[in-house]
Known about the structure:
Layout: H1 6-15, E1 17-22, H2 26-42, H3 60-66, H4 69-79, E2 83-85, E3 89-93, E4 101-104, H5 107-110, E5 112-113, E6 117-123, E7 134-136, E8 148-149, E9 161-162, E10 172-174, E11 180-184, E12 190-192, E13 201-211, E14 215-216, E15 224-227, H6 247-264
Antiparallel strand pairs: 1-11, 2-13, 2-15, 3-13, 4-12, 5-14, 6-11, 6-13, 7-10, 7-12, 8-9
Amino acid sequence: MNILTEQQVKQYFQDGYIAPIDILNEEQALSVRKEIETIEKEIPKEIEKSGRYNVHLISPKLDKIVHNSKILDAVEKIIGRNILVCSTTLFIKNPKQFGFVSYHQDAKYIGLEPHNWVSAWVAITDSFEENGCMKMWPGSHIDIKAHDQMFNKGNLLTRGQTVRDVPENLVKNVELKAGQASLHHPRIVHGSGINKSNDRRIGFVIQSYIGTNVKQTLGKNGVQLARGVDKYHNHELISRPKSLMDKNDLILRKKENLALQKIFYSGSEKRSEY
C-alpha cells in the first residue's frame, strides 16, 4: 500500500520530515492512552523518567503501533523493505509542568550508522502548540551540528543536548491529532515546548526504524524484525510482549533500558534522571 505519495517522499528528503500521516482512529488512540495509564497505576514509577524507554516491550497496544502496517508502509518508502525496530520512547508532558525538549539532532547521540533510519512520532493525545507539540527546522538535516550538553532543569533529553542559535522564524510546528504520526530524519533539528494546556500530552516515538545494514556504534541493544529479512545480523533479535506487564517481558525491558542508557551516555561522566 502506498500510504505516501512520491511527492511526500520527495518532501521528506527535502525538508527532513513529513506530517501528518493517519495511523489510528480516535477510539484506538484513546485505548492506547488507557493502557499506558493502567501501567502507571499498576506499577507506579515504572515508566517515569528513565523508565520511559521501550514501553512497547510490556504493552501490547504500543507493540501493535510499532508493527502497524501503515507506519511500516511509510517507513519502507524511505529506508527500504528490510526494517528493524531499535527502541522506543514515551514523551509524556503533564499539564502545567515545566518539561521541554531542547533543539537537537537524534543522530548526534544515538550511535546508529549509516543514517538509513527514520523516527516515527505517534500522537496518543492531540499535540498542538499550547501543549508542546514538536517543532522542526526544515532543511536542517544536511549535516550534524554542534551540540552543547546543558543538563538543564526541565529538559526531557538525557544530556540536555542543545543546538544553539536555531532560527525560530524558520521553525515549523508539527501539530497532530490523536492517532496521527510524523516521520523525521535522524539529522533534522527539532524540539518542543512546555505543556500549557489542562490535559496530558502523550507522544510515542519509535525512536528508530532502521535498515538492516545499520550498525550500533556506541554499544549494543536488541531489535525486532518488523518487515523483510535481516541478512546482516548486526543486532540481537528480541521478542515481542506476551501480555500486558508480563513478568519476563519486564525483565527484558529492564535489560534493554540499561543497554540504551549506556549508549545515550557514552562518553559522558554526568547523567540526568532521564
